[in-house]
Amino acid sequence: MMLLILVGFNFSHGKEKYSIATDIGHMTTSIIDCLENSDFLMLESNYEPEVLKCSCYPYLLKTRIAGPNGHLSNQLAGKTIARLIDSGLKQVMLGHLSKENNFPELAYKSVLEELEYAGYSNDDIIIDVASRTQITTINNTSISKQVINL
After folding, report:
1. pTM score, two decimals?
2. Cα gap 43→128, rounded to integer Å
3. Residue 11: φ, ψ to 5°
4. What does the CA dihedral 40, 44, 49, 51 come to, rounded to 10 degrees?
5. Quick one: which of 122, 125, 126 has its CA closest to 138?
6. Can you tell me the distance from the alpha carbon of 49 to that of 55, in angstroms, rounded to the nearest whole number?
7. 134: helix, coil or strand?
8. Rounded CA gap, 70 and 61, in Å?
9. Rounded to an integer, what distance in angstroms lies between the CA atom of residue 82 and that of residue 87?
10. CA–CA separation, 11 and 91 (whole Å)
């Protein structure tokens, strides 16, 4: 039996809700329910499927990463964000990007393509990509002021 560990947190400050979801591997209605009404979401966008397929990782590791107990692909992250925009999501930070199977520009582009496919644009939400090597600031001033005060 494999133990499934999901990492997710919701924080509230006044009327604002901040959420973090990573190492979830798949998306369910119960996870979506927990993330709804978030103003800010840090969501894993771990890998690009075509890059993962061509990586030097062993086959078993590739299947674990892409499986339901692995990580979210850029495309699934984009679909998740599209589902959450109408519930009030204003800003998303793509995080937990694989160093070997993703890069920031590709994650951003792939997520934006999913949003456009769902009828949204980058005018509907602020999308940032967290750095792997340094602290990443939140750019939306109203949200960042709330986070600083937490």
Report:
1. 0.88
2. 10
3. -125, 140
4. 110
5. 126
6. 10
7. coil
8. 9
9. 10
10. 15
3-state secondary structure the chain: CCCCCCEEEEEEECCEEEEEEECCCCCCHHHHHHHCCCCEEEEECCECHHHHHHCCCCHHHHHHHHCCCCCCEHHHHHHHHHHHHCCCCCEEEEECCCCCCCCHHHHHHHHHHHHHHCCCCCCCCEEEECCCCCCCCCCCHHHHHHHHHC
**Residue type (1 letter), 135:** I
> Which pLDDT tens digit goes with each residue over 38-95?
999 999 999 999 999 999 999 999 999 999 889 999 999 999 999 999 999 999 999 9
Give the tens place of pLDDT for each residue, 26-43. Answer: 999 999 999 999 999 999
> Which residue in this structure is represented by tokens 């769902």?
118
**CA proximity to 38, closest of 8, 60, 7:** 8
Q: What angle do CA 101, 105, 109 make, to 5 degrees?
A: 100
Asked whether the predicted pLDDT for residue 141 surpasses 50, the reply is no
* Domain residue extents for the chain: 14-149
> With 80 as the cut, is the pLDDT of residue 113 above it?
yes
